[in-house]
Amino acid sequence: MSLLSVSNIGISFGGVVAVDEVSFQVAPGEVFSIIGPNGAGKTTLFNLVTGIYKPLHGKVLLDGAEVAGLAPHLLVRRGMARTFQNLQIFFRMSALENVMVGCHLAERSFLLADLLGLPSVGRQNRLTRERAMALLTRVGLERHADTEAGGLSYGVLKRLEIARALAAEPRILFLDEPAAGCNAVETEAIDHLIVEIARSGTAVVLIEHDMKLVMRISDRVLVLAQGRPLAEGAPLAVRDNPAVIAAYLGNHGQKEAQRAHG
Ligand SMILES: Nc1ncnc2c1ncn2[C@@H]1O[C@H](COP(=O)(O)OP(=O)(O)OP(=O)(O)O)[C@@H](O)[C@H]1O
Ligand SMILES: [Mg+2]
Question: What CATH number is given for 1-79+170-262 in this structure?
Answer without folding.
Answer: 3.40.50.300
